[in-house]
Design brief:
The chain is α+β, with helices and mostly antiparallel strands. A hairpin with a 2-residue loop joins strand 1 and strand 2. The longest helix is centred in the C-terminal third of the chain and has 21 residues.
Length: about 180
């Protein structure tokens, strides 16, 4: 529900931004081809008001992005971080996952792979298990938000694919994660 309201607000802002300025195109009551559109493709009515600009971007469709997981989209954040030796999802990440779950519920053809990771501390086997527990924790939240089990796969890489090389707290904190990898 929250995500739907958010999309409506984004759509309204985009429409208002498109109506705010003058395009410099003269408006009259008839186009040369009788289509009701000016040379820039914007519609106009009897009072000369223009609606150009609001729907000109390819990434907008109605009130939702065509690919909200793309850079700049509302779901561009696709990494969930964890505390040391933890598989519990923090409150801020739960909201992020709620948005992803809502998106998946509304788009049943979209699938996501949940890749669990750990830092280099602990045995290889322990880190594989910890990465799996982390991926399963994320999976549970997505399922609760309406994603289907068929949309979700999990894999654990343990410590084998670090995001950052290093043996300090900063590197370790960035390596304790689950990545959401969307498949078209």
């Amino acid at each position: 529900m929250f995500a739907t309201r958010q999309w409506i607000i984004i759509g309204l802002v985009a429409v208002l931004a498109g109506c705010g300025g003058s395009s410099g195109t003269a408006m009259d009551d008839s186009a040369a081809d009788g289509s009701g559109y000016d040379a820039d493709g914007g519609a106009y009515g009897e009072d000369g008001a223009s609606s150009s600009g609001a729907g000109d971007d390819d990434y907008m469709s109605g009130d939702a992005f065509a690919d909200p997981t793309a850079p700049g989209g509302p779901l561009e954040v696709r990494v969930i971080y964890f505390g040391y030796d933890q598989a519990d999802v923090d409150e801020a990440s739960q909201q992020l996952l709620a948005d992803h779950g809502d998106y998946l519920a509304e788009n049943p053809a979209v699938a996501v792979r949940l890749e669990g990771h750990g830092d280099e501390r602990g045995s290889r086997e322990y880190n594989i298990g910890l990465g799996e527990r982390r991926a399963q924790a994320v999976r549970q939240i997505l399922l609760l938000r309406g994603a289907s089990a068929e949309q979700l796969t999990t894999v654990s890489y343990g410590e084998e694919r670090p995001a950052v090389l290093g043996s300090d707290d900063e590197a370790w904190s960035l390596n304790r994660r689950v990545e959401l990898v969307y498949n078209p």
